[in-house]
Give the backbone structure.
Amino acid sequence: MKKLNFFNSVTASFVAVLFMAFLLFVAGCGEKEDPNGGGNNNGGVGVPNLGQNGSGNDGDEMTIKGIECVLVKAGTFTMGVDDYFYYNVHQVTLTNDYWISKYEVTQAQYQAVMNTNPSYFSGENNPVESVTWFKANDFCQAVGGRLLTEAEWEFAARGGKKSQGYIYSGSNTIGDVAWYYGNSGVSTHPVGQKQANELGIYDMSGNVYEWCSDWYSEYSGGSAVTNPTGPSTGGYRVSRGGSWDFDERYCRVANRSYDPSFSYKNLGFRVAFPRK
Ligand SMILES: [Ca+2]
């Protein structure tokens, strides 16, 4: 008995020491684990590293899934315009930063992801066109992004918080920034050949129209809104920015267009990514 008790006592002590050692080990592991934890399970996708990309423009640029993007910082702006098109002017606040592709999605990018190129015009650096809203949406989802909301599109086109208040995206002179009916030679052009806008984004005015995620409806009466995403259903999707076959009025940052679910040789898109 005694021996047994003694043995038990020694065993108990030994077990206690082992247990303490185990607890210390676990605690030690815990201390090491956390610093950058946060579950950044991006599966190899180039998820933004918040200003550590070193690719210029004050760290506001980042290549995500091989797509060069520009950071648009959250802000408030006046959306719409009061003129012959009568788009109700209203205040819009976007509360989240977002990444937007610096260029319209190109034919090479579309081909690489979707294994097809439906474009009417040829040129791997020309914007992809002849894509339905659904195909554009599919591409965005395939690279872990999404289409821009109409409000996000207009805020970025206006230069975000760096806006100089231009009529077109980056200038009051259409030819500086856009391929449109007056200079396009009735064709798309390789992306990025005109001047960029205040944020360093190209071709938001002209070249190809760009699908947005929203269903189309008229703006409701002038009241301020936050993070608008458009109506919950509709018959047409918003497209923005004018194109190679439209005149300058349609290339203005405030101009609205809409299309049914179809494809056409003046209609492409760009992609957005949330800021992580
Ligand atoms: Ca465009």
Summary: The CA atoms of residues 132 and 261 lie 6 Å apart. Confidence is low (pLDDT under 50) at residues 1-57. Residues 61-274 form a domain with the paralog of FGE (formylglycine-generating enzyme) fold (CATH 3.90.1580.10).
